[in-house]
Give the backbone structure.
Amino acid sequence: MEPLSPPRKWRAITLATLLLVPAFWAILAGAVAAASEDFDGGAQAGAAIAFGLALVPFVFVVLAFASEHPRAPGAVVKAMLLSLAIGIPVSALAADAVSGLVAGMGAGGVVALRADDPHNGRARAWGVVVAAAYAFVLVRTVGALALLSAPAFPFTAIGLADHIVERRAARSTGPVADEGARGFEVEPGV
């Protein structure tokens, strides 16, 4: 199978992120409404959370199919399960929903986004950890402003991790020219 081109990968990441934004905001709006003592609308809070959670599988479907994952249906199921397994504990530990959503969606994105030869799960996982930590810090420092940018973190972090791995692989296997004193290439045997 031919490696996925960077424009196709970033197109998949962009489309999935655009679908993640309303899901992310709906889940957060529902969580805030449910936790608010001034608001007496449990049904509206539940509807917002349900709407957001209903969009999450489609986010992973778009990510897997747009990135031409060879086993996209299985990757979507794994992504949904992993997003719950990582997102819920991180939300509980961080005591905020934003960090948990970033970590959970990022964990799901690790398996949903097609990984080619130089990509590895370790670099992708570190990218998600950095994105979740960044969201954690933003929530505590800038507050509500973090809600606007946080949906862009998980999949972008995975794409950047892949890009870094690709560059390192290209640098380590690329041709190395023997350079002379003035930057001119020196011919062997001269």
